Amino acid sequence: MSDSLMPVYNRAPLAVERGEGAWLHDTNGVAYLDCVAGIATDALGHAHPRLIAALTEQATKIWHVSNIFRIPGQEALAQRLTEACFADVVFFGNSGSEAVECALKAARRYHSVAGAPERIDVIGFAGSFHGRTYAAINAAGNPSYVEGFGPPLPGYAQLMIDDEAGIAAAIARPTTAALIVEPVQGEGGARALSGAWLQRVRRLCSEAGVLLIHDEVQSGMGRTGRLFAHQWYEDAAPDIMCLAKALGGGFPVAACLATREAARGMTAGVHGSTFGGNPLAMAVAIAAFDEISKPETLAHACAVSADLFERLAALATRYPDVIADVRGKGMLIGLKLIPNNRDFMVLARDQRLLVAGGGENCVRLLPPLTLTFDEAAEAVARLEAACAEARGRLAQAA
Ligand SMILES: Cc1ncc(COP(=O)(O)O)c(C=O)c1O
Predict the structure, then answer these.
(1) Whole-prediction pTM value?
(2) Which end of the chain is more exposed for a tag (fewer CB within 10 A), N or C?
(3) In the predicted model, is pLDDT for residue 361 greater than 80?
């Protein structure tokens, strides 16, 4: 591997040449069934014809203009997004971290312009992941991402998801600005929060005047079988929502959505981006949105997910010494393992199946929403072969 790259990634020894649907082909011509999908990004699979058409058509027109001009694609995508959920306004960025950064700034600024600048505290949760900017690592508080990067930023604290009393007390504090949570924790290991939890926190935040931020960077854009994960539940919608990953179906683009009220501090000059929402990104994201939001795409994702969960539950009963739990929602699935998850990812790769890691010793399955039933069966068959190998190794080690 090249030593001219900053070695911040734990890279698998696999160099991808091309992709098609749920399949990746490496530079040696070997095909892999891709249940990583760019970590929940390639929601429509690789090389989707509609995305290719949108990209190539836009490439011949205009790639980039500054946000000092109107960008019609932004207006069109913002209209689609706001019509599809609680939000009234959208800011476009390039990555999930930037969407989170915008959400946190909007929340503090909201209180500042409302005459309560002391409200700066942001409540986050153990096991969450919000990206790699300073604000994002401080909001999630994962020690391995924070340590060595200077003093912690003021105004960030994390609670346990099941600490009901602590959450209520923190929301009620007069210095609290916002609460940020992933409706389904992704990197934390596909941990789906219950509707009751999301509704309770929604109610508490409303009562206290605290802004509720949903980080749907991973769980959004159809990943759970609804366009946004919180839409599975009544009365759970946030004030601000972060999107990225599948928003562009693999093209870098992100969005911070908010109610007009929550965004009232975000006035001209207080925030911005050079590349955010450029015409090329907008063209692809509009095509991705129109495809993902089709009822048949979401219905297919729900049906394949149900099939996968059934097959995986059966696999877990056959391999209770390898799989401790099957969890998650929709196409954001976690297998909590007994053997080391990183070792298991290698065994899966030996079977030409790609899975992602996750917290709590999980591996995650994040296939394209377009995965076929046959491919779902094939993925589980390959997992079964990896489980058999893992069992053999556990027996050898005993
Ligand atoms: C829930 C969540 N938020 C934010 C991010 C950060 O996104 P990005 O890597 O695009 O900055 C991620 C990335 O995995 C994520 O899963």
Answers:
(1) 0.98
(2) C
(3) yes
